[in-house]
Write a structure and sequence with these properties.
alpha/beta; TIM Barrel; 8-stranded mixed beta sheet; 24% strand; binds iron/sulfur cluster
Length: 286
């Protein structure tokens, strides 16, 4: 379903709009889409085309998100749509993040009601693809959930590539986040993901003040599997709060990237090094 976007401006004397949801600040001509392929300029207005469009829905263990220290042992209704504002060459969910897949519409009220059902369900996790580009739907669902049952959790599994204004609007409704910190150098973000590092650092700093957060770094062989890189990541997180958990996960070839799987011995070394800065370092995909 189409719905007018919340964060954009129409440029004077033109039909172009400037989207202000994420750090790409796409300038979009009439009829065209932004980089995330879910926001379209129609007659000098910006619309999100995936409002309520569900591509995936499942009840998952919270640890699968991964969130290891947030309500452990529980399950959470997990939902996603299509599209992403990054283009990671190694994306494990590229079939929904980089393509317009078939969906089924569900109103915000219907999804909120479903999220508030079930004794073994703690709420809702927006996951599978990048949730922040689903901003309007997430905001509406999360607001309704908090009205219906304050004990239900709202969780985001995100790349953290969102501007400060939208993030601050969403954070009061969010209980926990897992944020990807894909590397600690801008070249990696630019070359492999089509993004940049600084906005993600800002998101982590802001989110840490507002809710429970955990960080995930995929260690990609030949790209960011260097101890200096891991040390910079751990030191940055530790300076915010050494109790923030860090998940170091093993890469396997996927989508466009054919590098071999990451050496598990390196991941063990990386865990030990990160443990000098952080109290909880976990290894994943091993
Ligand atoms: S949310 Fe989409 S349209 Fe908006 S700036 Fe980001 S990539 Fe561009």
């Amino acid at each position: 379903m189409k719905r007018e976007a919340t964060f954009y401006e129409t440029l004077p004397d033109s039909n172009r709009v400037k989207c202000q949801l994420c750090p790409h600040y796409c300038l979009i001509k009439d009829g065209q889409f932004g980089s995330c392929r879910v926001r379209q300029n129609e007659g000098a207005r910006l619309y999100t085309i995936n409002y309520g469009e569900i591509a995936s829905l499942a009840l998952d263990p919270i640890e699968k998100k991964p969130l290891k220290f947030y309500r452990p042992g529980t399950h959470i209704l997990s939902v996603g749509t299509f599209g992403c504002n990054l283009t990671c060459d190694f994306c494990q969910n590229h079939t929904i993040s980089q393509a317009h897949v078939p969906t089924r519409f569900m109103s915000a009220k219907d999804l909120a009601q479903l999220a508030c059902q079930g004794e073994d369900n703690i709420g809702i996790a927006f996951t599978y693809n990048e949730p922040t580009i689903w901003f309007e739907y997430i905001y509406d669902c999360a607001s309704l959930i908090k009205e219906m049952d304050r004990d239900r959790s709202v969780v985001l599994i995100t790349n953290g590539y969102i501007n400060e204004g939208p993030l601050l609007k969403l954070l009061p409704l969010v209980d926990a986040m897992n944020i990807d910190l894909k590397a600690f150098n801008n070249d990696y973000y630019k070359r492999l993901c089509g993004g940049s590092l600084e906005p993600v650092k800002k998101t982590i700093e802001l989110a840490a003040k507002a809710c429970h957060i955990e960080i995930t770094t995929l260690l990609v062989s030949g790209e960011n599997d260097r101890l200096e890189e891991v040390e910079k990541i751990a030191s940055f997180i530790g300076a915010i709060d050494p109790d923030i958990p860090l998940h170091l996960t093993r890469y396997f070839p996927n989508y466009k990237l054919k590098n071999p799987p990451t050496d598990t011995a390196f991941i063990v070394k990386a865990r030990d090094l990160a443990g000098k800065y952080l109290n909880h370092v976990l290894m994943g995909n091993i």
